[in-house]
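Researcher: I need the complex structure. Ligand is zinc ion. Inputs:
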Amino acid sequence: MPAVILNDVGPRDGLQNQSKVLEPIDRVRLVHALLDSGVTHVEAGAFVSPRAVPAMAGAADVMAGLYDEARGGVTPVLTFLVPNLRGYELAREAGVRSVCMVLYGSERMAEANVQMSRVDAEHATAEILQRAQRDGVRVTTTVAVAFECPWEGPTDPGRIASLASEFLARGADEFCVADTIGAANPRQVQKLMQRLAGENGAARLSCHFHDTRAMGLVNVYAALETGIRKFDAAISGLGGCPFAPGASGNVATEDVVMMLEQMGLSTGIDLDALMRASSLATQLTGTAPGGRARAWLQRADL
Ligand code: COA
Ligand code: ZN
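Model: Output:
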């Protein structure tokens, strides 16, 4: 059992913001490259309106193309984002067994993302969560703009704490705290995650950091210090929310793996194989490789 679990959100958070739209078959290749490196958790797509997010069209084809049998005794957790009941139903029809639903730290972000009020999004999430429990589907609830909203500014930590208690009590398998625009600093992360871990225990909490201001890794470290052992990251640092101005890529999975492994915290991921997934991500999207691990590894080879 690895000390820290990484959920690679590159195939969803990463690809949704790329100008180049990848065919489902190429998204499947990327997910498989990640699984081949020992990544056990992948956010593989989203059942959202194809008009809202063209890059996520064909999520059912992605799901159909994925192998999800146990590998080395571990069954991968392949998660799809769903924004509403329609998305949940489509995901179920496609055979999805793990979904991610989004809650919001601010009103404006909820409106920009799903054309719902913050409270309506909470109600929709609660309803889907109930259904998912009946269906035996695993659920992550992720709270977007948990630290700062591009329009409303700093988010009240009390609001995030109430959402965490409420949705964990409702039975969410995981509550993920997302710094959607990369605005958080490590002290803020430590304070919030300490509070949430104190109130709910750390086991079902996770964090999602964007590296907009090069604070992705240090925020991972700050959360680790509070006992958080699960993180989202994106291969090659892909990412960014098309509906949150200023958001850049997620913290790069390869950088997080490199840091954790060097600290003696196992991830179960083979860094060389992960770099092959990173090269594939770069090749498929045509964007420059993100993160710093690649340059370091190439230097170490000299
Ligand atoms: N998947 C696919 N299609 C969907 C859908 C879903 N989950 N939910 C709604 N639709 C379709 C409707 O069937 C309708 O289609 P039609 O025009 O052909 O009849 C159309 O989308 C509009 O439906 P409506 O309920 O009015 O939605 P909306 O226009 O208010 O948009 C969302 C709401 C949630 C569907 C849309 O904003 C969305 O998909 N957002 C996702 C954003 C996202 O992924 N952000 C990044 C992740 S944090
Ligand atoms: Zn994100």
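Model: Summary of the prediction. The chain has twelve helices and ten strands.
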